[in-house]
Amino acid sequence: MKSRILIVEPSEMIVAGLSAILKNLNYRVLEPRRTVDGLSGDLAVLRPDVMIINPTLCPNLAQVLDRRPIRVAALVYQYVEQSLLHQYDAVIDVRDGSNIIEGKFVELCSAATPSEARGTASHDLTKRETAVLVEVAKGLTNKEIADALNLSVHTIISHRKNIMHKTGIKSVAGLTVYAMLNNLID
Amino acid sequence: MAHIFFEKQGKLSDMITLYPNLLHTLPRFDISLGFGNKTIAEVCEQNGVNPDFFLLICNVYSFDDYLPSKQELATIDMSQLVTYLEKSHRYYLDKRISHIQHHMNRIVGLLQNKRIGEVLHNFIEVYRGEVEEHFNYEEQNVYAHLTKLQQGIPDKAYSIADFISSHGNLQEKLEDLTQIIFKYLPAQMSAEDDAIEVVFDLLQLSRDLKKHSLIEEKIMVPYVMQLERRVK
Predict the structure, then answer these.
(1) Which of A45, A177, A182 to mutate to test the interface with B (most CBs of B within 10 A)?
(2) CA neighbours within 13 Å on the CB side: how many for A106?
(3) Which of A74, A160, A168, B217 is positioned for an S-S bond with B179, CB 3.0–4.6 A?
């Protein structure tokens, strides 16, 4: 399964060079982007496993990712303020040789959830997630749900993240409608 | 960055052809259609709109990564900012959300399960209430604060820092509703024209609210911060 890589970088030369290296390493390189305009919405369709982005384009990475589980590397070829780089999973320097780049990518891609696996998860919730959803729809807090289901708060939070990811619905009110439409509560 | 942003000597019609979403902003400046081939500067002058301010809004509205510099903000006449923001609020509530409610009521009327219909109906009612509350808060606190500072009156009762820490997101529930309608409504419902139309309306409103937040965060916040330092 080839990992899907998206490059977001304004310089055509750099994009061409990096794409060539990645294609040689047998990665699937998606149509590169010049800017982050409209990127956030398009990520759902592009489904990259790893994104390489010029950090100066994107001061607020979290906003662009919108909680999507994508690994992101910063592509650096000029001085970039260190504080901007903290939000990235890796830093790729334009002076890196292709074996260093390869090493960084092997690591990035192995840590990423392959998009195929994410796709087959579909919208079906596991039994445990369904149980958590029902409690969320009733308006219970994480602590109350943890007590009711005999699980840790941490586990509940992780189930809730999965529920949001699978259903695409984030608010409690929205999840309540979802639960009703699926006859999980009345 | 690498963009060529809009300029005063360009034709307004060219800008709109390139970025049709900007049509939504025209009524907020009281600019009506029929501007022919006039430049942005000419149309603005005719309608009593400051062209630099107009372009500032259009640029933020059209380019997600556009960030005006402090110098730009300091030199542009912002006297129309509050009017613009308030008109946007009215537009969202009276036009867009009312329109969505109208479609939603028809969808709810077609649902066989009345209980689900009721929950969907409440969902949008509660949402409207939240939007009204959000807008009222901004108008009574933030915009009032801004207006006072613009008049040179110091205002210690409110600080823009309160706004930064509490500014909520109005798009999230709209996005949820979009997902619910096109992914989870019973199949016979989603073929209805109303369901398809409302999804477009929701997507459009959600995008527009995002732009509205950007205008508040990228223009209003730094501008008020400058005023707060100056007017003491």
Answers:
(1) A177
(2) 7
(3) A168
